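Q: Got one fold?
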Amino acid sequence: LVDYGDGWQSAWDDHVRGWQPLYDSDEDGGDHVSASEMNVRDSPLLTLEELEAEPYPENVMTVCLLPVNLEENVVGTEDSDTGYDNEEDEAEYIWSSDDDLIHYGYNYWPCDILSRYDVDNGTSSSVRPLRDLYRVRAEVEGDDNDGYPSSKIVRRVPRDAIFFVDRPYTTGQAFLATFRHAIEIPDDIFPEGWKDLA
């Protein structure tokens, strides 16, 4: 067992005695759900339009795992899968997996779900013979915009390439009521020869 010092122990005991759940009702943020909890749910992701009626908890956002060679997959404005035609006439991209698509932080980009559609997943399963694909708008850094994020529309993004993440400063370590105290190391645990007594 590690001795963190009397001051630390006293502060910890006070914290435990006075601790209350941060979110215990809808009035004070009862909809707080961690990104890890959201990621284990197997439900289809909601589009921007659907989020107006049923928003996700405010503390989470979606990110998309996008290939580094996205620019190689530019397509026209019409989506043959859905018949959707991009009214803004901006180029869209097709998601593809490649050997460079590794689950590192720099391959994840904030994204919004614009639409969702099903395609045959190639199995004979009667439970879920289709798989969800998504059309997303992602904020991607690119050379064409001096390193600043630019908005790109990407089609055929699979569900397993879209994740929930906690928004900055919304996890437990950032809460005001989180326990924080310096660890006090007592002097008497160190040999006298180690101490700088000069």
